[in-house]
UniProtKB/TrEMBL annotation:
Alphabetical UniProt keywords: Signal
Signal sequence residues: 1-23
One Pfam family cited in the UniProt record for this chain: SurA_N_3
Tagged with keyword Signal: yes
Domain of life: Bacteria
Name of the protein in question: SurA N-terminal domain-containing protein
Keyword Disulfide bond (UniProt): no
Length: 219
């Protein structure tokens, strides 16, 4: 597989971890919410459902024990993804970016073909990025939307300058949403576009070349 088309999704940091499911607690201001983004609640129940989907898929794998061991703090990883998607949606809307269903279908087909088929693609995402089969469409959409955002803002994700430009665009969108995270999961860093104080040495935050059309995704 060509280096420029290896598994990648610049700027979307999958803060994966393997902790137990957290009970719904919520902050005093937002009981039962894992976070509030732009005034909309992300329920703890929705977060737990995503975690459960990943754990169920991992447990069905022959490498179940290793997969679970390798994905610590999974609840925080999935919350990061849920928040990041909303930030990306806001940035895309501000830039006039619209991703069509056909674009998503074509992108998923290309990624699956590159990976060696749908099953290989799904296995790769589960093993490398903690993405359950029913979460693949969202992961593909995230990458396509991010690439489209870069194009719309004139940023080249294959360069540090381009990556910094997209990060700035996302930071501006993030600040507008006034993200409030349940303290149990940490705090949101607008500048870094991620949950703060999470260490994930096995996840690359920004790939050297940035995402290319047809790349696999991190989820």
């Amino acid at each position: 597989m060509h280096r420029r088309r290896r598994t990648a999704l610049a700027l979307s940091v999958a803060l994966l971890g393997a902790g137990p499911l957290l009970a719904a607690c919520g902050s005093e201001a937002h009981p039962g919410a894992a976070a509030v983004v732009g005034g909309d609640r992300i329920p703890v129940s929705a977060l737990q459902a995503q975690v459960k989907d990943v754990r169920t898929a991992q447990q069905a794998s022959p490498q179940a024990a290793q997969l679970i061991k390798n994905t610590g703090q999974l609840s925080r990883a999935k919350l990061h993804g849920l928040i990041f998607d909303r930030v990306l949606d806001r940035a895309a809307a501000d830039a006039g970016v619209n991703v069509t269903r056909k674009q998503l279908q074509d992108a998923r087909a290309a990624m699956a073909q590159q990976a060696g088929g749908e099953k290989a693609f799904a296995d790769m995402l589960l093993q490398q990025r903690g993405v359950a089969p029913d979460q693949i469409d969202d992961a593909v959409r995230e990458q396509v939307q991010l690439t489209a955002l870069a194009a719309a803002t004139g940023a080249d994700l294959s360069t540090p300058q381009g990556q910094a430009s997209v990060t700035k665009t996302l930071t501006e969108a993030s600040k507008k949403l006034r993200i409030d995270v349940n303290p149990r999961y940490g705090t949101w860093d607008d500048k870094a576009i991620q949950l703060a104080d999470t260490k994930t040495p096995w996840i690359a935050q920004v790939t050297k070349n940035g995402p290319q059309e047809g790349d696999a995704v991190t989820g």
